[in-house]
Fold NitT/TauT family transport system ATP-binding protein.
Amino acid sequence: MDRDDHAMSQAAAWEQQGEASGEAPVLSAQRVEKTYRNGTRALDEVRLDIGRGEFVSLLGPSGCGKSTLLKMFAGLEEPSHGHLRWWGGNLATVGTPERTLAMVFQEATLMPWATVEQNARLPLDLRHVPRAQADARVAAALKLVGLDKFHKVLPRELSGGMQMRASIARALATSPNLLLMDEPFGALDEFTRNKLDADLRDIWSQQDLTVVFVTHSIYEAVFLSSRVIVMAARPGRVIADVAIDAPGPRDEAFRISAPFMQYCKTLSDYLTLANQQGGGHEAQH
């Protein structure tokens, strides 16, 4: 079985699993395409289902449409063709009980004049959540990300990694079922990035969260994910769906283990294929 046949068989297995469970995918892209007004084709017939509780990373060359697809999942972009589904319904499904989403962007985008606590409470204030309830949710979110002792601190007094923690806390305070993350750790040094990856993995394992995570890092994708979706260069499309079947803790020992290295090698091979298939060439299945 070659790489493309393997990718197709994995995708079919995930689809069959979803059908067997009787539960609609949290996210579903059905032949989604995106062409901008200037004629740029960003996405070409993307087919992807993401089930409840998965941690799925989108990996691919720059310009392959990873962030565009994530913005579509957030309702910030519309497809030119195809259909998107959230919990089996349209965008109006989002925001109903047990079907909420939050997004963490590449930059922390914190209000410089507000404390960490105030920044994290902002989406709850905008929704007019009662103050006592909002404060309790913010306190719990700050504790999850390790900022409970910094709740009165201003963003300028925090490191880049701590600012990103505050941004994640702001998202978690809304009690999302679906967390979308657009390369949030890409600008951080490797040590800080590894620490945040480990903490994010712990948060995901403790919460009833489905996560979609955009990254350029093979190592980050393998460490974090239950699945890695590899996308080809523009126009973006799925060329591989790789399950990261690594039970047990994801710790520093895992980062230097033989299975970790093998997964990295597999994804590296797919990325080589992704670059070769750029410029509008069709994947050979």
In short: The chain has two domains: 1-100+176-242+271-285, 106-174. Residues 1-15, 279-285 have pLDDT under 50 and may be disordered. The chain is about 40% helix and 20% strand. The CA atoms of residues 51 and 107 lie 27 Å apart.
